[in-house]
Automatic annotation (TrEMBL):
Pfam families on file: Acetyltransf_1
Organism domain of life: Bacteria
Domain named N-acetyltransferase: residues: 1-148
Lineage, highest ranks first: Bacteria, Pseudomonadati, Thermodesulfobacteriota, Desulfovibrionia, Desulfovibrionales
UniProt xrefs under SUPFAM superfamilies: Acyl-CoA N-acyltransferases (Nat)
Protein known as: Putative acetyltransferase
Any GO MF annotation of the entry: acyltransferase activity, transferring groups other than amino-acyl groups
Record-linked InterPro entries: Acyl_CoA_acyltransferase, GNAT_dom
Keyword annotations: Transferase
Amino acid sequence: MGFRFEIPTDIPEISKLVETAFLDLEISQNNEHRILDALRDANALSLSMIYEENGEILGHVALSPVKISSGDGSCFGLGPIAVKREERHRGIGSALVIRCLEMLRTSNASACFLVGNPDFYSHHGFVADSRYTLPGVPPEFFMVHTFRDDLPAGEVSFHPAFFVE
Ligand SMILES: CC(C)(COP(=O)(O)OP(=O)(O)OC[C@H]1O[C@@H](n2cnc3c(N)ncnc32)[C@H](O)[C@@H]1OP(=O)(O)O)[C@@H](O)C(=O)NCCC(=O)NCCS
């Protein structure tokens, strides 16, 4: 019970949770579970954490490396993140985000980027910052949480796994 890292036997349940969580989301291409598979295959899943209760996985979050054109080597992307529909608004999503940020901070990461709803992520120190851009994404939905003040501006690219069909 609680938060822990993914183990191999979790993978089918995580995949189902993530696929189902995004089903009714208009902006989703419903490929998030395949993105996770592609990140795993590429050895680019920097973190895969679950929240479980009574042996059931209720929430999941992933981190993967992102590149920034300024060349800083320690930036990460948060997502996908998903909580089982019936278990939302209990703070599970927030707790997963907070744990990711704690881990990145203690591992001396420079920044964490994501594409998401500002209503949710602004509670966790994410801001839309015009110094950082992600081509094709409206600036208000491209958000960053920086761990240092002097991160050079640049264009950000997520891992190629995010472009899986
Ligand atoms: C996004 C998602 C992971 C959130 O999970 P959750 O467990 O419901 O999240 P929480 O319970 O921590 O937060 C839910 C609510 O609390 C609000 N909240 C979170 N932290 C807060 C804080 N510190 N202070 C005040 N409000 C807060 C959020 O804005 C949200 O409000 P809303 O639902 O009215 O918009 C979940 O809704 C989900 O799986 N959605 C489908 C997949 C998805 O959209 N993933 C994210 C893509 S960007």
